[in-house]
Amino acid sequence: MPEVRLIDSDGSQVGVVKTPQALAMAQAKELDLVEISPQAKPPVCKIVNFSKFRYETEKREKEARKKQKVYQVKEVRVRTRIGEHDLEVKIKHAREFIEDGNKVQLTAMFSGREMQHKDLGIKIMNRIKDALADIAEPEGRTSSMGTRVFLTLAPKKQTVTK
C-alpha cells in the first residue's frame, strides 16, 4: 500500500499521503498508525494511541452485546394421559418461562399404542396454546417427529417483563 488516507489524532482529515510519511507523522507525535478500513481505496489509517483505541473498541462491542436479547428455549414435556392438575402445573411453568422472556417448546411424548392416537397429543398442545394465548404466540405449526409432537411458543412483544 503506497498511499493511505490519513486521519489525524484529533479526528481531522489530513488527506492522501505516502505510507512512510504517515508513519513519520505518527512517530513524531509518539502515537501509532492504525489501519481503520483496509478495504477502502486508498486504505484509511488513523494516528491514535493503539491501547486506548483497542480499549474503546472492546468497550463498544461489550455494550452492543449487552443490548442484544438472548432467548433461551425452555422445554415443557407432557404425556397424553396427563392428569388435569398436572396439566395446570405444566401450563403454570410455561407461563413463568414466557413471562421471563424465554421461548417454550412444548413436547408431547407417545409410547407403545399411544402412537395410534396422536390426535390426543395435538389436542393437549392446542389446549396449552389456548391457555397461553394472552401472552404467547405459536412459532410455526405443530410438527411431529417419531414418537413426539412439538410446538414452540414465543412471547408476544409487549409481555416481556424484564
Automatic annotation (TrEMBL):
Coiled coil ranges: none
GO molecular function term, any single one: ribosome binding
SUPFAM superfamilies: Translation initiation factor IF3, C-terminal domain, Translation initiation factor IF3, N-terminal domain
Regions crossing the membrane: none
GO biological process: ribosome disassembly
GO cellular component: cytosol; membrane
Domain of life where this protein originates: Bacteria
InterPro entries listed in its UniProt record: T_IF-3_C_sf, T_IF-3_N_sf, Translation_initiation_fac3_CS, Translation_initiation_fac_3, Translation_initiation_fac_3_C, Translation_initiation_fac_3_N
Subcellular location field: Cytoplasm
Domain Translation initiation factor 3 N-terminal: 2-64
Translation initiation factor 3 C-terminal domain segment(s): 72-156
UniProt entry keywords in alphabetical sequence: Cytoplasm, Initiation factor, Protein biosynthesis
Family: Belongs to the IF-3 family.
Physiological role: IF-3 binds to the 30S ribosomal subunit and shifts the equilibrium between 70S ribosomes and their 50S and 30S subunits in favor of the free subunits, thus enhancing the availability of 30S subunits on which protein synthesis initiation begins.
Subunit: Monomer.
Protein name, entry field: Translation initiation factor IF-3
Organism: Endomicrobium proavitum
This protein's encoding gene: infC
